[in-house]
Amino acid sequence: MAVKIAPSILSADFSRLGEEVRAIDIAGCDYIHVDVMDGHFVPNLTIGPVVVEALRPHSKKVFDVHLMIDPVDPYIEAFAKAGSDIITLHVEAGQNPGHSLATIRGLGKKAGISLKPATPVEDIAGLLDKVDLILVMSVEPGFGGQKFMPEQLDKIRRLREMIGERPIELEVDGGITSQNAADVIAAGADILVAGSAVFKDGDYAGNISTLRGNEQ
Length: 216
Ligand code: DX5
Ligand code: ZN
Description:
By secondary structure, the chain is α/β, with parallel strands linked by helices. It contains 8 helices and 8 strands.
């Protein structure tokens, strides 16, 4: 299977977000990655369900919503109604991740679980039947433009093994560039999230293509 590219709109021009979403859609992205931060689970504040709803008409592609918030449960329904396709929460957040994942599926959406860099794979072993996606953070969540943590490659390999034949997508988020994308894919990633590497220099199509491993 070819790798999927999910540009993080955190690195887009926020004064023209709708236009930016259309531009990455036309540039050939697979998913549109939306980073939601609450200033509490992570030390940054970004966007809420009203923004997801406003962006929804701008693309038919999968809206891949990454919740870096705690608590999680009070906001799941609003993100589902706003038009998210995948809703991912952190295993380190909330009261009961298994319950939150079931709520997401109950709303007809795909459910994802994410792990911060220091969180061991064992912490999600009991949730595999409840998820459609696993998101490995390869930077400390909170900000775009950080450096990829190479020690996460081993975690990606271990999760690939743990997933086995289950229909779960493995996504990696943080510091992905044309220099390390091939290593991340070789370790077992199905989806690469990339903010700065897609939105730099204005050539979104070229940047997406390079991340897929195509020569420019
Ligand atoms: C970090 C976010 C990432 C990040 C990716 O908390 O979850 O999606 O913005 O940006 P880059 O690719 O610039 O590291
Ligand atoms: Zn993210």
